[in-house]
Amino acid sequence: MQTVFFDVDTQNDFMLPAGALYVPGAERLLPKIARLNRYAASRGIPVISDTDAHTEDDPEFRNWPPHCVAGTLGQQKPPETLLDRRVVIPSTPGEYAIEGAEQIILEKQTLDCFTNPHLPAILEQLNADRYVVYGVVTEYCVRFAALGLLKTGKRVELVTDAILSLKEDDAARTIEEFLAGGGKLTTVEQVCSE
């Protein structure tokens, strides 16, 4: 079974207490995210890491405080979440090669990773039967990734101890919707013991 891991928005501005849009407690997920990403690399499983890459006057800042401005420390991923062989895929037109990359850093300017026009072609090229999703925030960007991947008709698993929410009720509704759509729940230990 061809698997792809999907690491959602694990960036300094979300994951660290000094971050511009810090998710309380997110730093405690970092060892789990690092374990999942390293496990994937050790098994030859590609990791797609979607990341916000905003301009200073990004339209998203009408709804959210400024965060993850391209080129800033806040926009970067914490070092422990990075793999050695990686490629960055912006959402601008162009040709991008992913061959040999352990980690594909997919930039986006909205909550939905599927707004990067290159994602469908990347998914087609990787030809996964299974996606394993984790990161922040459950009811926003994780939701878009997980539900979008379910639309591919492939198996999608959500790593429940490697996600975090801002509002528990909204997160619970997201998980209900995910399960109703055919998604499965798993844990870091279950994934890393396969």
What layout of secondary structure does this protein have?
Elements: E1 3-8, H1 12-15, H2 30-42, E2 47-52, E3 86-89, E4 103-108, H3 119-126, E5 130-136, H4 138-150, E6 155-164, H5 168-180, E7 184-186, H6 188-192
Parallel strand pairs: 1-2, 1-5, 2-4, 3-4, 5-6, 6-7
Helix pairs in contact: 4-5
Describe this structure in words.
- With 194 residues, this protein is an alpha/beta fold.
- It has a single domain, classed as Isochorismatase-like (Rossmann fold, 3-Layer(aba) Sandwich), CATH 3.40.50.850.
- The chain has six helices and seven strands, in the order βααβββαβαβαβα.
- The chain has helices at residues 12-15, 30-42, 119-126, 138-150, 168-180, 188-192, and strands spanning 3-8, 47-52, 86-89, 103-108, 130-136, 155-164, 184-186.
- α4 links the parallel β5 (130-136) and β6 (155-164).
- α4 (138-150) runs parallel beside α5.
- The longest helix is centred in the N-terminal third of the chain and has 13 residues, at 30-42.
- The protein starts with a strand and ends with a helix.
- The mean pLDDT is 97.
